[in-house]
Design goal:
The complex is a heterodimer of chains A (68) and B (248). Helix content of chain A is 15%, strand content 31%. Chain A has 68 residues and is an alpha+beta fold. Helices cover 38% and strands 16% of the residues of chain B. Chain B is built from ten helices and seven strands. The longest helix of chain B has 19 residues, at 180-198. The chains are: A alpha+beta (68), B alpha/beta (248). The A-B interface holds A 2, 9-10, 12-16, 19-20, 38, 51-54, 56-62, 64-68 and B 1-6, 10, 14-15, 17-25, 28, 179-180, 183-184, 213, 219-221, 224.
């Protein structure tokens, strides 16, 4: 089982991770805002994650860690 | 199953780039390539003027800031004094293709043993979206508000094709960052370019197309689509020179 962790302090809510995810594991939050004022990405369907790391590859801010 | 953690070649400083700007992806690719080649201790980077001016805060190696456009000249000096170091230059399109065109072309013509990472977002980002030498025909910028008109503003400069007319460069490739496939291809190109330098083969140049959601006035995902559909028409991806495979 892989887990995707998002460093919310670094996230700028650009949504490239959610766009790259083939399994709709990630989505932009509508409520959770970080200190910079961005609505951050969040893991909504962790059980669907296949560990492809596409989200981390597309994240411009290195805010995503994928681990087993 | 693959896992992904941030490379140690990048510092923990939060990047200042706008949301969705793929500069951060290219930073990571360069950093990962250097780490995988095991050359972190021998690496010296040259930061440009432009959006990436704070690159020296993000790369966890020795960095030198250069005057606007003069990064290849600074890299030439460093490489000639310290030939055992890995010297990479990170430049944007305004820096490399406009004010620094002379240094760029002459460093390539001399075949200096350095690696240039050229970030092409077809606009001036930091100064607020003015027309760059690489702005596409019809693309809007603050200094060509109805879109770039060739009769007034001229045509975009294709730097890879331009440098490929010279004899000295060893490796020239253009890559993009609009989806995972192309990001992985970009990493292969950057790693290859750094590897060639480490082997002492000569001038290597990688042009990376990146998006500028802020100044293109698009959402980040739409900007990636624009890059994939429009920028790659004006700037075709591919290898323009690879002497290791006999492509001259």
């Amino acid at each position: 089982m892989t887990s995707v962790k998002i460093n919310e302090a670094l996230c700028k809510g650009c949504g490239l991770c959610a766009n790259a995810c083939p399994k709709n594991v990630l989505s932009l939050s509508k409520h959770n805002m970080n200190a910079k004022g961005y609505f951050v990405a969040e893991v909504v369907n962790p059980q669907h994650c296949i560990g492809c790391t596409f989200c981390a590859i597309m994240c411009p801010d290195c805010a995503i860690t994928v681990s087993e | 199953m693959k896992t992904f953690t941030k490379t140690k070649m990048l510092t923990d400083a939060p990047m200042h780039y706008c949301p969705g700007c793929t500069h951060g992806i290219v930073h990571r690719l360069v950093a990962e390539s250097i780490e995988e080649l095991g050359l972190q201790e021998k690496c010296i980077g040259i930061a440009p003027v432009g959006c990436a001016v704070f690159a020296y805060d993000y790369f966890n190696c020795d960095m030198q800031e250069a005057a606007h456009g003069r990064a290849p000249a600074v890299a030439t000096g460093i490489k000639r004094c310290l030939p055992d170091r890995l010297v990479f230059v990170y430049q944007g399109d305004g820096d490399l293709a406009s004010i620094g065109m002379a240094e760029t072309v002459h460093a390539a013509a001399r075949g200096e043993n350095i690696t240039i990472i050229f970030i092409n977002n077809s606009i001036y980002g930091m100064t607020g979206g003015q027309m760059a030498p690489t702005t596409l025909i019809g693309q809007k910028a603050t200094t060509c508000q109805k879109g770039r008109d060739p009769s007034v503003n001229g045509y975009p400069i294709r730097v890879c094709e331009l440098l490929a007319t010279l004899d000295a460069p060893y490796y020239i490739e253009r890559v993009a960052t609009h989806d995972v496939k192309h990001v992985l291809a970009a990493k292969r190109a950057i790693k290859k370019a750094l590897q060639f330098q480490a082997e002492g083969r000569g001038y290597s140049f990688v042009e990376v197309l990146v998006s500028c959601p802020t100044n293109w006035h698009m959402a980040p995902v739409d900007a990636l689509r624009f890059m994939g559909e429009e920028c790659t028409k004006t700037f075709p991806l591919g290898v323009y020179r690879d002497k290791s495979e006999g492509k001259i």
